[in-house]
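Here is one chain, start to finish.
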Amino acid sequence: MLFTVMQLIGGIILSVGWIPQILQIIKTRSVADLSLKSYLLMLLGIALMEAYAVNLAAQGVGLAFLITNTLSLAVVSTVVLLIIRYRAGSR
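Its structure:
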């Protein structure tokens, strides 16, 4: 139980940590210094971990991992979409 709580808290902190970046992008509409390749690799890694998390949750374990990984997938996807949106808009 303790480790589940630790995983939930840690995962939420990691996910919420992306919010300042997202807000900065929206505020400045600038993504010039962000590497799309890096974010795409992170997105791929998180997506692969998501498949594993779904498998664990289907077995009745790892629900905390699924929740926090899904949050990470959502926020990193948001950054990738913002990079694509603002790069296309600046051309």
